[in-house]
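ok new one. same drill as before - structure tokens go in, u give me an amino acid for every spot. 280 of them this time. try not to just spam alanines like last time pls lmao
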């Protein structure tokens, strides 16, 4: 199967680095050109943070209706718009915090020009453009907030919890995460890993939270994440999460396949490989 995907990459002239597939027959991986073993997965990181939140919810440590400002009250130093008090964990998971502009995007913005090293303070000083819960606006803000929530509840940086509860159980090889100047996990981006490891999260979701017989997160959480859109989107019949410049993790229960890749494609040309997947 991996050969067919490689052929599709070549046929479409796609600038792919690595690609990995899991089916019931096993795991396959290939490097499409010389490249680093680990690559930036960009916003695929969000799905790992969402899964970590699911683990906390499964264990009764967090509710989706908990207020972000209530949780982080002791860490917020600035005066902020009172609408922030209405923002819940669920709003953050669904990009409905009320934020109307895109900021805290460390991949496209020069963070050395930020006026503060306190990213939480910077977020809270931003006035919501919409009533929380009413408008979808995709930004990198919510998952930094969720990262801080994870740390407040567990005492671990979000990437430390993810490593303990997700990466180690999924038998990841080396992986690294970006952190802010105050040493908190960015959460929304900055996960460096192999496609052959990233694909394991897709296979976990395909199997309703279980990987090789071990439950990572509950089936109830997977169903909720899919139905409410906790950074799981429909890509022409495949569910999954994309990242900036052509990163992807996808799964399809009907075809019993999960796939992930890293690439450098600025105009979503990488999505052409989905047509190949549909024919498998």
């Amino acid at each position: 199967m991996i050969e067919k995907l490689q052929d599709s990459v070549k046929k479409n002239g796609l600038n792919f680095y690595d690609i990995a597939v899991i089916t019931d027959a096993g795991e396959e991986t290939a490097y499409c050109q010389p490249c680093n073993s680990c690559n930036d997965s960009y916003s695929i990181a969000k799905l790992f943070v969402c899964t970590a939140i699911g683990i906390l919810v499964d264990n009764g440590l967090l509710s989706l209706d908990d207020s972000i400002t209530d949780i982080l009250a002791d860490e917020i130093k600035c005066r902020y718009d009172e609408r922030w008090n209405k923002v819940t964990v669920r709003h953050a998971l669904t990009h409905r915090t009320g934020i109307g502009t895109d900021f805290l995007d460390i991949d496209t913005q020069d963070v050395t020009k930020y006026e503060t090293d306190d990213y939480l303070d910077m977020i809270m000083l931003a006035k919501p453009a919409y009533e929380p819960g009413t408008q979808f606006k995709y930004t990198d803000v919510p998952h930094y907030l969720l990262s801080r929530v994870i740390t407040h509840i567990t005492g671990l940086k979000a990437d430390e919890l993810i490593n303990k509860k997700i990466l180690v159980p999924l038998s990841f090889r080396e992986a690294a995460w970006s952190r802010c100047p105050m040493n908190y996990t960015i959460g929304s981006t900055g996960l460096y890993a192999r496609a052959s490891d990233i694909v394991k999260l897709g296979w976990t979701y395909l199997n309703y939270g279980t990987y090789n017989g071990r439950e990572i997160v509950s089936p109830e959480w997977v169903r909720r994440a899919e139905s409410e859109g906790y950074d799981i989107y429909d890509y022409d019949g495949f569910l999954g999460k994309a990242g900036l410049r052509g990163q992807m993790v996808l799964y399809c229960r009907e075809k019993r396949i999960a796939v992930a890749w890293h690439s450098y494609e600025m105009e979503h040309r990488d999505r052409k490989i989905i047509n190949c997947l549909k024919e498998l």
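The mean pLDDT is 96. and btw The chain has two domains: 1-37+194-280, 45-173.
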